[in-house]
User: Fold this.
Amino acid sequence: MPDLPTKPSIEEKAEALAPEPIVARPTDWIDAEAVTRTLRRWDTKVRALLEFLEAGTKEGMTAGEWQIQARAWASLGEMGRAVKAYDEALTLGSVLKRDFATYRERADALAKLGRYPKALADYNRSLKLRPDDPDTLNNRGVGLRNLKRYEEALADYNRSLELRPDDPDTLNNRGNTLDNLKRYEEALADYNRALGLQPDNPDTLYNNRGNTLDNLKRYEEALADYNRSLELRPDDPATLYNRGITLDNLKRYDEALVDYNRSLELRPDHPDTLHNRGVTLRHLKRYEEALADYNRALELRPDDPDTLSNRGNILLHLERYEEALADYNRSLELRPDHPSTLYNRACLFSLMGRLQESLDQLRLAIARDSSYRAMAREDEDFDSLRSDPALGPEFERLISEPEP
Assistant:
């Protein structure tokens, strides 16, 4: 190894570097303890110091120094750089390879980058070294939930809560997973318990409990929770979006539209918000604006069956029948036998004069959801089918109450 220069003062270096961009490639020897002290004392200069270290030669840096740099990058939200530094630390450090926390920390950074399979591998390594660490179990649960492996996530949260029963973050996370599993009453119990523990993030818990209350059709209670959450964090786009859904369920469409508009100002081009604003605009009979929202949502997410089906509904209303049919067909390719889309395609076929196809589609829709039988009785879209001499009697038999 070549000789290394005399150690300079890290504090002096950070002081000098902070105001100006870094252009040099230093080769200075790095003292890990001094760096740690500097990171604590020079909060406004952390990024400058780290960029100085990153620009320098990597030769001679120890595993511990890489780990310090990784943790500092993570604290700044620079997860890509943090992962690279953790990689270096684990390559060099035989001791770190036996440290459960280093694997968990790299996993956390990978998860924030959306690299869940790799994060899961690191959580597994960490738990082999310390099987009953409640934080790692909780964090692996988050990764599993993001991979839609809900039952496995639930098992991790359950074990974490056996070890640390009153952790509000884990209760919140388990509540989210129970909501995904449609176990809404259990989810509600977890949110209630977490809120009783004076958590650091009550706004998030109010928002999440609001989602479950909405799923339980307890819309006024959901609205109260979203209002509490927005009092604490007024410009959260996700909570504004969720409150918009509840206001739409309450048929308070103008208020829902205000929330969707504000959410999209804060989080432009979010496909779910565009889709739901389109639904609300349709309720308000602002069809061209609804169509524009569906078009934009489908530019961002072309194969979403709900948005395709709902755009088909708008096109049907605008009497653009061939375009509507193309959307229904594509939606059913992606999600075959969906009763709502089958029913809407039956309506469309009736309006297009394709009466046998209309009857066949309606029969399929009713077979999958019998509530469409009553809906069809009152639906004017089936007037052509209803009055047809050949098919009208068969239509009437189909929509009549089934024999007891």
In short: The CA atoms of residues 219 and 249 lie 7 Å apart. The chain has a mean pLDDT of 88. DSSP finds 24 helices and no strands in the chain.
